[in-house]
Description:
The chain is built from two helices and eleven strands, in the order βββαββββαββββ. It has helices spanning 50-56, 100-108, and strands at residues 6-12, 16-23, 32-36, 64-69, 72-76, 80-84, 89-92, 112-114, 126-130, 140-143, 147-148.
Amino acid sequence: MGNEKYKCRVTYGLEIMTISWEIxxxxxxxxxxxxxxxxxxxxxxxxxxxxxxxxxxxxxNCDDVLIVKKGLLTDTSYANxxxxxxxxxxxxxxxxxxxxxxxxxxDSGKVVSADIGIEDLGEYSSIRLFNAMLPWEESIHLPMxxxxxxx
Length: 151
C-alpha cells in the first residue's frame, strides 16, 4: 500500500454479509448538469443506487448531475455540495444524503445550511463537491459557469 486512499464497503442486513476494500479514485469533474426529480430519495447509503444511477444517466455531455428536488438543490450523484456567495459557503438545508463530512463542516462553521433554489444560482460564484472521501481541503472546487442549466 502506497499513498493510495482506500474505501471500505460493508454490506449488511441484520448481520454483516461482506466487507471489501478498493482504491478510491475520484473521477475528474469539470461540468455538472442540473436534473430535476421530485421523488428521488437517498437518505442513507444503500447498495442499491438505481435512483441515483437513473439521474446520472441524464448528465448528457457533463461529468455528473446536480440534483434538484422540489425546486431546491440537493447533491450530486456522489457528493454533497456547498455554494459560495463571496462571503459564506452554503450547503442545501435538505440534501439527499446528510453525509458525515457535511455534518462536520456544519458543526465547525465552515458551511451554513440554506434553501438554495434554481433561481438563486446567480448569487453564487463557485461550488464545492465533498464527501467522507473528499474532505473540504481536497474537495472539487468549480466556478459556477461550469454548471449547465436544466435542459
